């Protein structure tokens, strides 16, 4: 009787099963990566950068390119009666200007590449920026930056054919944006201008001035 009661107690107790889950193996006998690594890999994608990137970020390159052009202008061989600031810049080594110009070129190239990817992958966002009365003015910024960088280039002479080709490449988008903005202003009247005109509208004026100065150097 004692043995039967012990057997009944053993049968009535719940069974505990230990299951060992091995990582899945593909057909080529390679172990798949854990889920945590996949999540980390996805978080390092360019999607957050491209979705948050706007043409307004090119204000950074506008400042850098302006400084590079200013450095080149002040560092050119001044006349004998030049201002003390120009003499100071003429004494600085040319390597410093080359480093500044290279950093500016790298920054502008990186931003331009990211914005091109944004145009290809998130065209609807770029379209909404183009149709916005404030955002469309910032679309001048990348082309103004390239024109400033072209004028401050220590490697391309204004008389060369490369300079003329690059000038046309950067000026044509400026003309297209001018037609878009000022065409709306002329066709929709003064009431429309009073509704959409804002301080960023001056960027288009700066773009035309920079393009005209770059053209004057080719003469």
TrEMBL record:
Localization terms from the record: Cell membrane
- Which keywords are on file for this protein? Cell membrane, Ion transport, Membrane, Transmembrane, Transmembrane helix, Transport
Q: Where are the transmembrane segments?
A: 96-118, 130-150, 162-182
Membrane topology type: Multi-pass membrane protein
Biological process, per Gene Ontology: intracellular monoatomic ion homeostasis
Q: Could you tell me which Gene3D superfamilies the record lists for this protein?
A: Voltage-dependent anion channel (1.50.10.150)
Return the GO cellular component terms, semicolon-separated. Answer: endomembrane system; plasma membrane
Q: Please list the GO terms describing molecular function.
A: voltage-gated monoatomic anion channel activity
Q: Which family does it belong to?
A: Belongs to the SLAC1 S-type anion channel family.
The entry's protein name is Uncharacterized protein
Q: Which organism is it from?
A: Acer negundo (Box elder)
